[in-house]
Design goal:
Blueprint (H helix, E strand, L loop, with lengths): L6 H11 L9 H37 L1 H7 L11 E2 L11 E4 L6 H11 L2 H11 L5 E5 L4 E5 L4 H4 L10 H4 L12 E8 L6 E11 L2 E11 H7 L8 E5 L4 E4 L1 H6 L10 H5 L17 H11 L5 E6 L2 E9 L5 E7 L1
């Protein structure tokens, strides 16, 4: 994301806010990890602001159906069967559309497609503005999905999916999100349209108290590695509140006695069909001491820890994020 101009601000913030964490930790020790977390959370905040803006635009489109239907641009192609503008051969400027056979109100689907056609331009702009966002979409309880960039709908999705049964929809509903604002779907999941393991920022759109759609921004684990972790000179790992590695560098992952990567990177692993996230959980490390460290970080909130490896001691710094139930670990060799 385009935040380089804000680096100086975060350097100042981190310098002022870094606090000693005991066990011989100093402000200097935590300077890099605090800066990394501040930059990442700043970017996540930008995404929250952006999805709120998109929610307002979407709400305005749905609240003015007469005007919207008369002014709506035409779809790039007709909805045939369960899809429209599906790859291969899709118009790259427009979203793909998916209509599940579990949905029965085809007229409602037709109207929502027409009303939300202007969102394609908004979706396109968001993808261009935020490199970490791999796809933008909405799901509706009438079983309509609009997603950009376009994809091969017919090959990647079953025809009878219930879109409301996925966490990227129901985590945004009133039961799970009574505040009706942006919410992070923290649990990693495999993207149904084939873009790998990811996390989602969701935001509901209500009309007259009725939930009409849930917007989504998807960020793949690969995006997090490429846009954040790999740009740091430090050996960093991000783990979720259950101890599973979200992102990290190979050397740091291997130091915690997780599966050896050797001529294979974590990035390659998470994009392969054989990736099992439980294999990269600190609580399941083959090293008992790593499992103990995971417990101290996640359940006791300790920030400075030591791990013996090959007659040397590794220093581990931990910083909990505020926007997500994630921990950023820095391994100092």
């Amino acid at each position: 994301m385009k935040v380089l101009s804000h680096t100086a601000i975060f350097v100042l913030i981190c310098f002022v806010s870094c606090q000693p964490s005991g066990n011989n930790a100093t402000k200097t020790d935590f300077f890099e990890i605090n800066t990394f977390v501040s930059l990442l959370e700043y970017d996540l905040g930008l995404l929250e602001e952006e999805i709120v803006k998109l929610g307002i635009i979407s709400q305005n489109l749905l609240e003015n159906p007469v005007e919207g239907l008369s002014n709506s641009p035409k779809s790039p192609s007709r909805l045939e069967g369960i899809s429209a503008n599906s790859e291969p051969g899709a118009d790259p400027e427009h979203s793909s559309l998916y209509f599940s056979t579990s949905g029965k109100d085809k007229e409602a689907v037709r109207q929502m497609i027409l009303l939300t056609n202007p969102l394609d331009e908004e979706f396109n702009g968001i993808i261009k503005k935020f490199p970490s966002v791999s796809q933008v979409y909405f799901n509706s309880n009438i079983q309509l999905n609009r997603l950009y960039p376009p994809y091969n709908v017919n090959e990647m999705l079953e025809p009878d999916l219930d879109l409301t049964s996925f966490n990227f929809y129901y985590e945004g509903d009133e039961k799970h999100n009574p505040a009706k604002g942006p919410v992070w779907v923290e649990e990693m999941y495999i993207d149904p349209v084939g873009r790998g393991w990811m996390v989602t920022l969701a935001h509901p759109v209500y009309i007259g108290g009725d939930l009409k759609m849930v917007l989504g921004f998807d960020i793949t684990l690969n995006d997090i590695i490429e846009n954040y972790v790999n740009k740091s000179a430090r050996e960093l790992i991000i783990v979720d509140g259950k101890g599973t590695v979200v992102a990290g560098k190979s050397k740091a992952i291997e130091a915690l006695a997780l599966p050896t990567l050797k001529n294979f990177t974590y990035t390659q692993t998470i994009t392969s069909d054989s990736y099992q996230k439980e294999d990269f959980n600190l609580f399941k490390s083959k090293d008992k001491n790593v499992r103990i460290i995971a417990d101290k970080i996640i359940n006791s909130g300790e920030q400075v820890l030591w791990l013996s490896e090959n007659k040397t001691k590794l220093k581990i710094l931990s910083k909990k994020m505020s926007k997500l139930d994630w921990y950023v670990l820095e391994i100092q060799f």
